[in-house]
């Protein structure tokens, strides 16, 4: 069975040209003029792109006394509906839990995934067992480890643990990720706000000013530099952490930054809404910021100091959010966005001239495929790549609404946003999942994508680390001690 996408304009991260694309089974078989197959899809007026990759989702995640509401079934349907053909979720061991046991639990959740997926492993505690099991996790195709510098008393790791883990990542050819916020300061600020009677959702934003993010980003960058390992900073929300990344990159460090579509387009005024539910539904960490920070993030994407736009999709229902009535620290942190990331980014980015089409492909797909070491199997329109393809209609209009969305929650943080630009067809490893707004995604089609450790970047860093390592100066004629 073969399919051909006819008359499309192919857009990749570095070029744009007109051609047909032939899909055989689950791969791209050929690209060229006048290809023919059993099924032909007319892409006239559309752009043919590599499927989006969202490297930051939390599906059915145990967190803050509950579970995020979207599982791998609804979450991957939401992804496909918005043009994303692969998600990378976080496996989150409980404190003292074996990483391998946690991985088994996460594996069990994926049987209904309708698009491909991979995992990052979270380091939530430290000890010999974690040190040893990290090697097995890498062998299983998961060479990336997330560290929470926030959530004191729950997921947070201290600097000594982070340094030990980063060194282990360096030795294993793995990439450390960090959630950069100073958890000690956030905890102290939260306590003070509550004591002063500031218990509403706006207290969440007050408790996490941009400075706590900037400090943590700088600290993580320094620790990665000492360990001789690259670093990926998730959900960069403000100029302070962007500035840290920019500065590190100018110094030659391999530091990557990932803003979210929410931070790019929604601002802090959401937390001051008079409606408690409205504000609480938008509680996530880091919180939304003001326009100055948003401008900084957009500039980072176009200039290349930030590389990836993700969602951190971690959706909770209104009922779950209401656990925090009277105490903002108990509102489950997280928002949805999987279905909306690409249409909103296209509308606010490409349609306004803040991003080119090629930059759009780079930040939604190709860059992360390269950073996570799965390029060109993913993130590329080339012969032999997985046929994860989006036929993007730049004229398709939609008003975002919770009604009819794939996510199971009862609201959408982008409610009422009008988008122009959305998928017309979406193929996931050769299977048609979206056709003209109709979701044909097949539950169970999604497969785990194993990833190799990072040879090039880690080898470069460890070589330089070795060349510049402290060396004892061998001296002759050492004077006698002065005593
Ligand atoms: N971001 C957020 O508020 N929730 C998901 C967990 C995390 O990544 O911090
Ligand atoms: Zn996080």
TrEMBL record:
Which cofactor names does the annotation list? Zn(2+)
- Establish whether keyword Zinc is in the entry: yes
A biological process (GO) annotation for this entry?
pyrimidine-containing compound metabolic process
Superkingdom field: Bacteria
E.C. number(s) listed in UniProt: 3.5.2.2
- What cellular component terms from Gene Ontology apply here? cytosol
- Whether Aminoacyl-tRNA synthetase counts among this entry's keywords is no
Q: Which residues carry this modification: N6-carboxylysine?
A: 146
Q: How is it modified after translation?
A: Carbamylation allows a single lysine to coordinate two divalent metal cations.
User: Which enzyme class?
Assistant: hydrolase
Write out the GO MF terms. Answer: dihydropyrimidinase activity; metal ion binding
Ranges annotated as spanning the membrane: none
Question: Per the record, what are the reactions this protein catalyses?
Answer: 5,6-dihydrouracil + H2O = 3-(carbamoylamino)propanoate + H(+)
User: Pfam families this protein is in?
Assistant: Amidohydro_1
Amidohydrolase-related domain boundaries: 47-431
InterPro entries according to UniProt = Amidohydro-rel (IPR006680), Hydantoinase/dihydroPyrase (IPR011778), Metal-dep_hydrolase_composite (IPR011059), Metal_Hydrolase (IPR032466), Metallo-dep_Hydrolases_sf (IPR050378)
Q: How does it assemble?
A: Homotetramer.
Q: What is this protein called?
A: D-hydantoinase/dihydropyrimidinase
